[in-house]
Amino acid sequence: MKMKKVLTGSALSLALLVSAAPAFATAASATSNTVSVEKEQKVITPQAYLKRVPLTGYPSRWSIPNKTVFMGVTLYLKEARQESDGTWTGIFEGWIND
């Protein structure tokens, strides 16, 4: 009894697979004929890089601003140090595009 069910099930699944095969073949060829080939254009954007700019001559630590605009780019204060002549230097960082 079990063998009869296995054989019947196998025969039905094989018949279904064989009968559906032409449908898959025509569907694949129909889509490949109707799809137009378009070339992709890649846009290359310039890579930004991190720029460190020291600005000197500040009279005190508290006179150094937290951010400044340098050559059209906003730079942010990352470090401050006192020079030997008593003035302060602010080290600013920002991302600049080429």
UniProtKB/TrEMBL annotation:
<protein>
    <recommendedName>
        <fullName>Lysine 2,3-aminomutase</fullName>
    </recommendedName>
</protein>
<keyword id="KW-0732">Signal</keyword>
<feature type="signal peptide">
    <location>
        <begin position="1"/>
        <end position="27"/>
    </location>
</feature>
